[in-house]
Amino acid sequence: MLVEILLGTAVITNIVSLYIVRNLLNKTERLEDWIADYTEKIHKAYSEMQLLDDRGVFEADDEVGDVFSRLKDVTQQLSQEGVEEDAS
Predict the structure, then answer these.
(1) What are the domain boundaries of the chain?
(2) Residues 56-82: pLDDT tens digits?
(3) Cα 44 to the center of its chain, rounded Å
(4) Which of 44, 54, 58, 74 has the most CB atoms around its CB within 10 Å?
């Protein structure tokens, strides 16, 4: 009788554990997909910022140029961080 109770408890514990692990795996995969999409958006934004800057649309002397320069620096840093993470 004791063996059946212990076996039943072990089976229920294993089923619950498998359910928890499966849910955590699904959440991890969704997070990885989100990170990949976010990284791709950052690279795209950085490429577009470079394209705008190459055309000379913004002047560095005015407020818009200053904001644009700061945005470009931030996107460049994020893009480099994404490349470093991809390499590892």
Answers:
(1) 2-87
(2) 666 666 677 777 778 878 888 877 776
(3) 14
(4) 58
Q: What is the CA radius of gyration of the chain?
A: 25
- pTM score of the predicted model: 0.60
| Whether pLDDT at 20 is above 70 | yes
Alpha-carbon span 29 to 50, nearest angstrom: 32
H helix intervals, the chain:
2-54, 63-87
Question: What is the distance between the alpha carbons of residues 25 and 33, in angstroms, rounded to a whole number?
Answer: 12
Residue-level length of the chain: 88
Under 8 Å between Cβ of 81 and 42: no
Angle value at C-alpha 78, between 85 and 88, nearest 5 degrees? 5
